[in-house]
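Design a sequence for this backbone.
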């Protein structure tokens, strides 16, 4: 009887271990770039393929490439504001369909590269609109702006490819500028709110609420999607964590650095509390801290430097453009990341070719295998 009990306990233990292993493997299949899903979707209905491409485009906004991350991000946007969620959905679908009609590269379309600029344009049009939610006429510029992003992306890519640089969100920044300049603050059809410089004076310029400042750090991640609610911002951060824990750490770190930079420049308290001071720092930190460069102590330090530079550049651009009522959007983070990609020296040795960029953990593993192969090759040729 004792032997039978011992056998049953052993079988139960192995069964639990096997279940845990299967659960872990299933979880790992949901992380990273999920390339296996592309193979599975090849012979499926076009509508299902379009949904996956669109979800990858949603995740691309925050430098991820995972359709499940896109699902979590869309859920966060609908949670924060159903109207903003609808605008984002329309934007990513219109830009993706436009790319298909124009005959853009199928790998770029399926990877979501033609969806994220359209989504950002639609979200910012809704965020700056002063006409309120469910103003259906706003769908007209949303569709036109999202479609135009594809033309700009296609044109800019032929130029940026010469230096192996990503087009990133240059189309979004250009289109949203043109839209706000065309419509103006008092436009009778598409009115929008005026952007305030972060350095605008406040009556209580020295009284800070520490809890609100700390709360602004995760909000900085949500502000990449123009989301200023804490719960949805945490869900967006969870979507990044699902794609890459390393990228999620750099997102929070970059937002914290941006908040620190805002404190050092005494920006408006509203910018600190809402996360607007942190989102460009988060973008700059994520781009260098493992996405476009393999992770190491050197690139980690460069990522922190990139976050500081992005944050200070954002403050400067906001003060400059705020004088004419325009937002700086993500110009600072985009320009800083592009500058880092153009750098030479020790940082360039860690750079990943744009066509080979995947999840940071995969980049790190691939570089380790490449370095090990080169070492073995050198040893085999030594005499």
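Sequence:
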């Amino acid at each position: 009887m004792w032997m039978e009990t011992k056998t049953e306990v052993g079988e139960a233990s192995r069964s639990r271990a096997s279940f845990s292993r299967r659960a872990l493997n299933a979880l790992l299949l949901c992380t990273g770039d999920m390339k296996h899903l592309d193979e599975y979707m090849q012979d499926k209905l076009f509508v299902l393929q379009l949904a996956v491409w669109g979800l990858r485009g949603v995740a691309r906004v925050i430098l991820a490439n995972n359709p499940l991350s896109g699902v979590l991000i869309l859920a966060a946007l609908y949670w924060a504001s159903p109207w903003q969620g609808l605008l984002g959905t329309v934007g990513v679908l219109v830009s993706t369909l436009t790319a298909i009609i124009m005959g853009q590269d199928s790998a770029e379309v399926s990877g979501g590269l033609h969806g994220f600029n359209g989504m950002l344009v639609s979200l910012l049009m809704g965020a700056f609109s002063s006409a309120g939610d469910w103003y259906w006429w706003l769908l007209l510029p949303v569709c036109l702006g999202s479609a135009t992003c594809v033309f700009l992306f296609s044109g800019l890519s032929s130029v940026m490819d010469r230096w192996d640089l990503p087009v990133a969100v240059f189309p979004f920044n250009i289109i949203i500028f043109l839209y706000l300049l065309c419509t103006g603050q008092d436009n009778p059809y598409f009115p929008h709110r005026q952007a305030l410089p972060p350095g605008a004076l406040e009556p209580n310029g020295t009284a800070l609420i520490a809890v609100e400042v700390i709360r602004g750090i995760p909000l900085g991640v949500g502000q990449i999607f123009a989301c200023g609610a804490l719960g949805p911002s945490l869900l967006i951060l969870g979507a990044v964590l699902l794609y890459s824990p390393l990228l999620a750490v750099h997102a929070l770190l970059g937002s914290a650095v941006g908040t620190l930079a805002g404190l050092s420049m005494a920006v408006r308290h509203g910018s600190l509390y809402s996360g607007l001071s942190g989102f460009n720092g988060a973008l700059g930190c994520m781009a260098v801290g493992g996405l476009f460069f393999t992770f190491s102590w050197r690139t980690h330090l460069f990522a922190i430097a990139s976050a500081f530079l992005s944050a200070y550049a954002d403050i400067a651009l906001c003060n400059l453009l705020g004088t004419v009522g325009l937002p700086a959007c993500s110009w600072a983070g985009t320009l800083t990341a592009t500058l880092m990609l153009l750098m030479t020296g020790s940082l360039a040795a860690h750079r990943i070719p744009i066509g080979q960029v995947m999840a940071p953990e995969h980049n790190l593993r691939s570089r380790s295998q490449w370095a090990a192969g080169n070492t073995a090759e050198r040893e085999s040729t030594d005499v």
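The CA atoms of residues 158 and 167 lie 9 Å apart.
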